[in-house]
Amino acid sequence: MHTLPATEIELAAWLRLALAPGLKPAALRLLLGAFGLPKAIFDQTPEALAEIAGEAAARAALAPTGPEFEAQLDAVIAWREQPGNQVVTLDDPAYPPALLTMPDPPPLLYIKGRLKLLHTRAVALVGSRSATPQGVEDAERFARELSVAGVTVVSGLALGIDGAAHRGGLEGVGGTVAVIGTGADLVYPAAHHALARQIAVQGAILSEWPLGTPARAANFPQRNRLIAGLVSGVVIVEAAMRSGSLITARLANEMGRDIFALPGSIHAPLSRGCHRIIKQGAKLVETPDEVLEELGFARRAAPRVAPGPAHAVLWGSVGSPNTSASSGTVAGEPESVAAQTAEPSPTEAAAAGAATPVAAPPCPPVAPEAQRLLAALGHSPTTLEILATRTEMEDAALQTTLLQLELAGQVSVLPGGRFMRTSHG
User: Fold this and answer.
1) pLDDT at 148
2) How would DSSP label each residue in 286-338?
3) Is residue 399 over pLDDT 90?
4) Rounded CA gap, 5 and 288, in Å?
5) What own/partner pairs with CB < 8 Å and gap ≥ 24 does 402-411 have?
6) How far apart are CA 186 and CA 338, in angstroms?
7) Who contacts 23 (Cβ-Cβ below 8 Å, separation ≥6)?
8) 207 pLDDT band (50/70/90 cuts)?
9) What's residue 300's pLDDT?
């Protein structure tokens, strides 16, 4: 290896350990605790390392570097020299203190943007990639209000709820941190390139993965553990029963973090994960102030950002990980899926058949405009103005379509001029 300055020799030692195949962060922490800096680990015998962290960890730590290591080190040094980029090691005072409470903090972190945001009070706000319009509005509103209160909003830069959380977080003094599952030199999904650039300037992007690491499904649960580790609490907005957000909630719970979830309609598929987590002990929340109060965060004396549309205040909020917003249906979800959520069990069907021998006629096919309107409506009470904004339909077409859906029994009109999708609509 070519001659390096002392700081780069130290970085090379950390990088070697970070890249060592099979050396898990928890085992590495044991070795560092016993021997100090990485260079001291390399000076030990395999037997000495094995006594502390096991034979597999000893072999991994002392394995020679591959032929590509020098190029990887050069790439890290070059990346670190770019404006706004930092590589923080486990022994660095700049290392996020919250992550040190984890059993397996990463040895190296790649950070773009405002490092100080990793040292502030923070709340994670996560949820479904296939978010409903209501879920997106709730996520943005919660994130904005938390950020205005001086709390940093942490999420995973995914589509749907994560993106909305970052956008809301950027509107307040608390800012936002995106924890990503790829190398810090890549952006995934590609649709969030512009958002990532904005976060890199106004917030922070954090990754533990080596530069150039592409998006792999196996990386995201590990990414979720860092999200959980950085924060005091996790708020889940819309989550299906099998959701990565529920993984984040479980990991956060294991680390002693508070879990919150937004409740939603019992007919909404994206409410089910939230409701499940609430049943398991997550806190049901309806306002950002409830999250601040539960965590003991005093609201800063800062100008409040105007809340989102009035309908977002009617039902929406936070409660447990993988929360579902009040709307709860996947935007653009096929009607067949929505119908399945209200399908009776065989026993119920038999009972209904005994009482009513003649089956109800099937609903007529839904026109594209009506499908768009139903998707925008979701499962929570919504005003005409909000529907007009979500669908971008002309007034006359909107009124006509609503009337057709009402006559077909798929939409009901509530007091106060609000509309709600029926359980079978």
Assistant:
1) 96
2) SSHHHHHHHHTPPPPS-PPPPPS-THHHHS----SSS---SS-S-TT--HHHH
3) no
4) 49
5) 402/373, 404/370, 405/370, 405/373, 405/374, 408/363, 408/364, 409/363, 410/363, 410/366, 410/370, 410/374, 411/374, 411/377
6) 36
7) 17, 57, 60, 61
8) very high
9) 62
Domains of the chain, by residue range, sit at 1-75, 115-314, 335-421
Rg (CA), the chain: 25
- Residue 420's DSSP bridge partners are 412
Tell me the one-letter amino acid at 149: A
Respond yes or no on whether the N-terminal peptide bond of residue 93 is cis (omega within 30° of 0): no
- CATH number assigned to the domain with residue range 115-314, chosen from the 4 options 3.40.50.450, 3.30.70.120, 3.40.50.300, 3.40.190.10: 3.40.50.450
Task: Report residue 108 as tokens.
Answer: 């190296």
Which region, left, alpha or beta, applies to residue 409 given φ > 0 means left and ψ of -120 to 50 means alpha? left
pLDDT of residue 370: 83
Fill in the DSSP letter of residue 129: S
* Architecture of the structural domain at 335-421: Orthogonal Bundle (1.10)
Which amino acid, 171?
Answer: E
pLDDT of 316 > 50? The answer is no
**Per-residue pLDDT, 4:** 63
